[in-house]
Amino acid sequence: MVMVVFNDVATLRGKKPSFNPGLAANVRVLELEQELQHCREELQTTREEMQSSQEELRSTNEELQSANEELITSREEMQSMNEELQTVNAEQQSKMDELSRVNDDMRNLLNSTEIITVFLDKELHIRRFTTGVDKIFKLIPGDVGRPLSDIVSDLLYSRITEDAREVLRTLAFSEKQITATDGRWFSVRIMPYRTMEDVIDGVVITFADITVAKTLEAELREEVSVLRAKSSK
Fold first, then answer.
1. 3-state SS string over 99-140?
2. Local confidence band at 159 (pLDDT 50, 70, 90 cut-offs)
3. Which SS3 state, helix, strand or coil, does residue 197 take?
């Protein structure tokens, strides 16, 4: 910075102020030195700011590089987890396909035997049933979860729920021949429902139509009675 001061001085009358070239040159040199010093200070400040910016940029670059390495590591871990998940999904899909085939086999087996089957849980609520059950019970798919005792049946078997509870209590199966309201006969078998872990989780009730056998049995008895009556004469 340069400070210029103007002071009033008395001048001699009749004389002009004198000009000193050496003094002017010294003032100019002083101004130039001050400007040079100012430039040096600005340059030093700029250099320090650049160094600070370079250090910050270097630190930011290191942080970005570290973050990039972490991102690459995370991506590799995600890729590994994705591959493991795909493997698990493939295994689960294979198990589901196998379970579906087993269910299809069991359904076809039960349907081929023409034995009506009803599965009940431990509270004797309907869990599932096979086709043809409507020949005995007034069942629809929406009845799943309802107590068996609430379902209207054509069987003359009022103690079916009591017998099912007894099977759950003793784990001994029950088998009876029961007639229907229309004259049909069924062999009703109640067995405990066992899981793969050998845990009792309800009962299975099967209904086999034995009407033909019972009809033949009745005819044979009638013929035997006729023959005995003839032989006694």
1. HHHHHHHHHHHHHHHCCEEEEECCCCEEEEECCCHHHCECCC
2. very high
3. coil
